[in-house]
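yo, Probable membrane transporter protein is done. seq:
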Amino acid sequence: MEKKQLKTVGIGLAAGLVNGLFGSGGGTIVVPALVFLLNVDDHKAHATAISIILPLSIISVLIYYKHNIIQLNIAFIVAIGGMLGSFIGAKLLNKVPVNILRKIFGSIIIFAAIRMLIK
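structure:
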């Protein structure tokens, strides 16, 4: 297996592990890894990360459901809002310049990290 393929598998492994443990990983792991390790264009990295979320989430949901730790009533309501937000975000992605996209993404990650550390 060549070096790029090993990096790609490693990115997937890290994203899957983080997704399974924390319910995140598509964006927080995959986007920076694709941009900085594989030199993928930012817009393409964000779009690719979105395509990775579904299979990761299906596996995690099956295991969480089996262990009865999903609050389905909340999940369905949030999913409705998430679908609307995803539609709007996907339409806006190519309209946001890379430098602004990076600042927004980085700010969200930093804000979430600070909130997690404080609580």
